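Possible race condition, two jobs.
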Amino acid sequence: MIISVYCSGSIAKGEGDERKLCWTDLERKQVQEGAHPLEVVFLNPDDPITDPANVLGQFGRDMFQVLMASAVVVDARERRGLGIGVEMAAAASLRTPVIVVAPRNSKYRRDHLEYRGARVSDYVHPHVASLALAVVDDFTEAGEALGRLPAAPRDPVGTPAWLRASIDEYRSNVLAGDQPMLDALHRLGVHR
């Protein structure tokens, strides 16, 4: 069986990002190993885009990938930004399961935390806890969680208005030249 995973996490955008933890072939290999015997097609937001000046189309590409994914796996090993939060919210809106890699005692997950005047045990950041189907320690565990996704297809859902314009822009003006995404759709047996 073939499934698709949207790789949510930081993208190296230039100088100063070389120390940032990002998705690499190692993380993808670990997800694939954990998901075995499932075959995983990775949808990568950092693949080159034909028109980087088309910001609506670029956002639409990410949202289209979230829509097409069997699951979104979020790299939350360290502090993340606005884009990852939007991807998680979009996934929830589109009913795409979210699996968050947040090791114990990292930014979004703590064994103990002094929080709002109280000591909390087994703390998971409220946004992560509310939007994630599973919170795991590493990418192999994320792959294992993929194997536990519901077998039945998700209930169809209309695309929320706040996502529709960007996805339409991507489909109309960017997808035809997006070879990595066209290849992924072909592997998944999806006809655009």
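Job #2 (started ~2 s after job #1):
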Amino acid sequence: MHRQVLLTLLDRYEPWDLNEARMYLATKEFVRAQPRCFERSLAEGHVTGSAWIVSPDRTQVLLMHHRKLDRWFQPGGHCDGDSDVRRVALKEAEEETGVQNPRVVGDGIFDVDVHLIPANAKEAAHYHYDIRFLLEVDPKVPVVQNPEAKEVRWVPLAEVARYNDSESILRMARKLHPTA
């Protein structure tokens, strides 16, 4: 596993606020300490890649209603051994929304989040060290419904809190529009 690429991306990143800074430091520590950090089989947790997909004018975000968790989230998923977290985020965005060739905005990380995934019938509770990238897509491009989602929908940025009011989601919205 090549952790150095992710560690370099993290070194170039500046957290948005104190809450994100705490998760950022925890992520750096986790990646440094765990050679298998990209493996889903690492029981305590693993690195995941996500995409915050926005319209070119930054007034809309593409969210999916996650079937298992029954909540609205940005597309994303497990690295499954792939240390190129940006590639993982792009792959997940395409698979979960059907958008093709989204434009990566900037050359670095957009957001860092650590969240606990509750235990289920297949796995014990564990942490996702989620590395998020900002992608841009024209909202006129058709989206595709997929088996992991109940629905995929463009949501006005000003209405994101109606879909998911978690600090994790609201922080990404505020990064685009501080009053969101």
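The helical segments are 3-11, 18-33, 85-97, 160-163, 167-176.
Logs attached separately.
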